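From the methods appendix. Each design record in this collection lists the discretized structure first, followed by the designed amino acid sequence. Records were kept in a plain field format so they could be parsed without special tools. The example shown here is representative of the layout used throughout.

RECORD:
C-ALPHA CELLS (160 positions):
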C-alpha cells in the first residue's frame, strides 16, 4: 500500500499541475543546469578524489531519478528506451567508468540534450514566461548549437 502511495506521489510530481509539482520540475531543470556546469568545470581540471566522489553522488542521484521515472511509467521497458533514459544511462556509465575502465567523460555531454526536452517543463516555461514564449525557437537553436559544439569537441578530444 505504501508503494502505491509513493508511486502516486511521484506521478504527481512528474506530471501534476500543483505548485509543488511545478517547483519540483523546475528544481530538476536547475539540477540539470548545475550538473552540466559541473561537467564543464570538472573537464578542465585534474581528476581528484573529490571529483570522483561528486561523480559517484551524481551517478546515484541520476540513477534514482531514472528509477523513479521508470517506476511510474505505464510501460517501464518502453520508458527505458526513450531518449532521455538512454541519455541518462550513458551519463551514469560515464560517471562510473573511471572506477571500471577508461574515462568516458565525453558521454556526459548528452546530459545537455535533456535541457528543455521535457514537454511539461516547456509547457510551464511558456505559461510562466512571456520572454521564453517569444524566444523559444531561438533558445532551442542555441541549445542545439551548443550541444553540437560540445559533442564535436568531445569527439576530437577523445580521438586526439
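DESIGN:
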Amino acid at each position: 500500500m505504501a508503494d502505491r502511495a509513493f508511486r502516486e506521489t511521484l506521478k504527481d510530481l512528474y506530471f501534476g499541475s500543483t505548485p509543488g509539482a511545478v517547483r519540483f520540475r523546475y528544481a530538476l531543470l536547475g539540477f540539470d543546469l548545475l550538473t552540466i556546469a559541473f561537467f564543464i568545470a570538472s573537464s578542465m581540471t585534474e581528476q581528484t578524489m573529490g571529483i570522483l566522489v561528486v561523480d559517484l553522488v551524481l551517478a546515484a542521484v541520476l540513477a534514482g531519478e531514472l528509477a523513479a521515472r521508470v517506476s511510474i511509467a505505464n510501460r517501464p521497458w518502453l520508458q527505458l528506451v526513450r531518449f532521455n533514459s538512454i541519455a541518462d544511462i550513458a551519463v551514469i556509465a560515464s560517471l562510473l567508468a573511471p572506477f571500471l575502465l577508461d574515462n568516458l567523460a565525453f558521454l556526459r555531454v548528452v546530459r545537455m540534450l535533456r535541457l528543455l526536452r521535457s514537454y511539461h517543463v516547456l509547457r510551464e516555461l511558456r505559461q510562466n514566461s512571456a520572454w521564453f514564449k517569444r524566444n523559444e525557437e531561438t533558445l532551442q537553436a542555441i541549445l542545439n548549437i551548443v550541444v553540437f559544439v560540445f559533442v564535436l569537441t568531445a569527439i576530437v578530444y577523445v580521438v586526439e
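APPENDIX NOTE: The chain is about 80% helix and 0% strand.
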